[in-house]
Fold:
Amino acid sequence: MDPLEELMLRAYPNPTRTGCPGFQMLRSMAAKTVSRSDPAWEHLWKCSPCFGEFVKLRDARMARERLKQIMIWGSLAAILLIALTLGAHRFIPSRYSGGPGTQRPNRYQAAVFNFEGAADERVLRGTETPPPERLSPKDQRLPARIVDLTVYLAGGSDDGEYQLQFLDGHNTVLASAEARAQIDKGRTHYTAVVDLSKFAPGEYAVRSRKWPNGSWHRSMVIVE
Ligand SMILES: [Zn+2]
Structure:
């Protein structure tokens, strides 16, 4: 206990309790609902019995307040814990193991197509037939199904929006997609879902260009 309070408990005995404000008043004082200018405060500092009662009431109030604080913080901690637990169940599975709308990239078979080193179609116009040697730089194959296709673009391609098209021998566009390319360790690539499920097995042209009017890069693919 405070040494000054210790002293106060003995300094003014007042055995007859002369001028004491009464228990109710002391309780109000301990509850801090009595104005600091009230003469009862003056009396408190000159009456050890009143001071003793006041200290007990005040300490009891402070203990109740501490308990209330502990309970509030305890409740908040419990709410936080529940929220975290619910959050972990509600969000982590949907974000990382696939909830509605998040599964799309994983629902289709992953596939890769490579334009790195592909012919530049810039000079080819309309019905002009590209030289055959420029159309089959590699023997690339894709399955005849909906694919989650990662496309690697020719070296040095910019990032940004790209267009991708699959064409038949009559230059008819059979499938197309748009995607945002990014550069990763010097390689420019994008990923797009492309439906090749209606494609008859065979050779097709694939071309890609930067949206809206970059030059087409063209290559061949075998769909099987
Ligand atoms: Zn008193």
